[in-house]
Design a protein that fits this description.
Blueprint lengths: L34 E5 L15 H11 L3 E6 L2 H13 L3 E6 L5 H15 L4 E4 L15 H22 L8 E5 L12 H21 L5 E7 L5 H9 L16 H12 L10 E4 L8
Parallel strand pairs: 1-2, 1-4, 2-3, 4-5, 5-6, 6-7
Length: about 280
């Protein structure tokens, strides 16, 4: 009689941090010569002494390490400038742009300033998103609903509308969404709805962009240990107790490497797709 196979024990397992997970891996020239705009490339400060790297700053730093020139846009001028300072300290090339994509007038200026500073545009990451209002349908007002959709959905649409005619053939656009757009869980209805709708926008951008080889994809993070994530956990402590298959939350660097894949030629035949970077929360939990 064959010995019955036992399922692997998962309890207590914690996925080790690799050099990439910690932002310590060297660049390999995967973006040599590229000119990339990272919208939301600054970072919220929760506790300057202990804050981990945020998704936008990690992407900006990683793209520069991989050989790209980076335009770092953020509504917080100091946050964008700090990201640029770190890039330049590592020998990279970057410029800071102050812009609020809830304001349509800022968007056209941001795109024009990025192209002027870098001499062109080969890639754009839209790392924006706010969660407003209280929990549940009873906690959201009409004003908060409009505010969330203006930033999370209208802003990215206007960025694509302004940028795509000026982007080079073969460029790449990456939307940073959330698994809240794939499964219920945040309990913020405007946030969930806007992130779900981002998938429809991404596919449309991919369809229009295909005429010039411009690719469009989504990275959907799960639980990530960033300053914004820690702030969210303070407001909803149950978030920090969510069982995660790999035993820990992601780092901002792990989200950045997923975006790097879509930004590089390694994904040259991939468009219109969503990649959940969530330790399997949407697939196996």
């Amino acid at each position: 009689m064959a010995e019955e196979k036992q399922a692997p024990e998962k309890q207590g397992y914690v996925r080790p941090l690799s050099a990439e997970s910690q932002g310590e891996a060297p660049g390999r020239g995967r973006l040599d010569g590229r000119r990339i705009l990272v919208v939301g490339g600054g970072q919220r400060v929760l506790d300057a002494a202990t804050d981990p790297v945020g998704n936008g700053r990690a992407m900006s730093l990683l793209f520069a390490r991989e050989g790209a020139t980076v335009a770092v846009a953020d509504m917080n001028a100091d946050a964008a400038a700090e990201t640029v300072r770190r890039i330049e300290a590592e020998g990279g090339k970057a410029t800071a742009i102050t812009a609020d994509i809830s304001k349509p007038g800022d968007i056209k200026r941001m795109i024009d300033d990025a192209i002027a500073a870098m001499g062109g545009l080969d890639g754009m990451v839209l790392n924006v998103g706010i969660g407003v209002g209280g929990l549940g349908l009873d906690g959201i007002s009409a004003e908060d609903w409009t505010k969330a959709l203006n930033v999370n959905l209208r802003g990215p649409m206007l960025c694509c509308q302004a940028a795509m005619p000026k982007m080079e053939e073969g460029s790449s656009i990456v939307f940073i969404s959330s698994i809240a757009g794939l499964v219920a869980g945040s309990r913020l209805p405007a946030y969930d709805a806007s992130k779900a709708a981002l998938g429809g926008l991404m596919r449309h951008v991919g369809l229009e962009g295909s005429k010039r080889g411009i690719r469009s994809n989504i990275v959907a993070p799960g639980l990530v240990d960033t300053p914004l994530g820690r702030l969210a956990t303070q407001g909803r402590p149950s978030r920090g107790r969510t069982p995660v298959p790999f035993g820990r939350q992601a780092t901002g660097w792990e989200i950045a490497y997923a975006a790097l894949f879509f930004m590089s030629d390694e994904s040259v035949y991939v468009t219109g797709q969503t990649l959940a970077v969530d330790s399997g929360l949407t697939g196996i939990s």
